[in-house]
Amino acid sequence: MKALLETLIRGLGNGSVYALLALGFVIIYKATRVISFAQPALMLAGAVAVSHLAEVTGFHTAVLLAGLLIAGVALAVERIAIRPMVGRPVFVVAIITLGVDIVVRVVVNAFIGRDVRQVGDPWGFDQVALGPLVVQQRWLAMLAVTAVLVGLLFAFFRYTRYGLAMRAAAFDQETALAQGVSVGMVFALSWGLAGFLAAVAGMFVGTGQGIEQGTWVIALKALPAIIVGGLDSLGGAVAGGLVVGVVESLFQSYQGEYAPWLGQNFAVVTPYVVMLVVLLVRPYGLFGTREVERV
After folding, report:
1. Which spans of this chain does the record mark as coiled coil (predicted)?
2. Is the pTM of this model over 0.90?
3. Least C-beta-crowded within 10 Å: which of 106, 118, 205, 225?
4. What is the Cα–Cα distance from 160 to 169, expressed in whole angstroms?
5. 148-170 b/e with 16+ CB inside 10 Å = b?
């Protein structure tokens, strides 16, 4: 039981990072109806920014500055590459975001170099005792920071003027425009929020193990998370990220013992297996909106 609980905490820690990335995907999708494939590059850029800024300032200050910096980069991407594509087919805009991802990663890789780069986090692989459990501090930090950010994000959408405007535009853009909501502002704000969340997620991805040029692949695990939770559900993004993280952790710990016939490193593909299972049962995700088309 002790090993199982420790495995679950590790899964929830990793899952909280996937949740932050998934929230970025969902926020942009709800505002623009486009899945942004630029999130992996923004995550990597955030991690690199933290790494460089931590060398000249405190770690916590570096995380905040990096989040704001990547939010600014995301705003620039939206204004330069995405805004002119408004009205074009969704598929075309999605391909544009894929191109943005490649360009940003090429630039960021020049700052990473060939070696693994540390982000300067204070946790590393240090452990802490929680009663009989021994877990790494970074898992607890991931959970705590994600809980705070999710709480602030939901409060933003519920109680602030800009949050309500984003909700209105996500529900019906034409009606929101008629009521005086700036849809362009909503698009920009959605990208800025997604960039900030990606930067924080990138920092956590690099804790302990550092970052390298291939680290961006980790962000792809957020795609199964948004499918599991539902493309248009913020709560579903959080739940999907946690589910993916826990399932992955369980397979890492127990698959070799109970299902060795699945082969080595099967845990790597478990997020996509979970996604396929959910798609078979609920194609719109666990918390997504079921679309009904009349013919």
Report:
1. none
2. yes
3. 106
4. 14
5. ebbeebeeebeeeeebebbbbbb
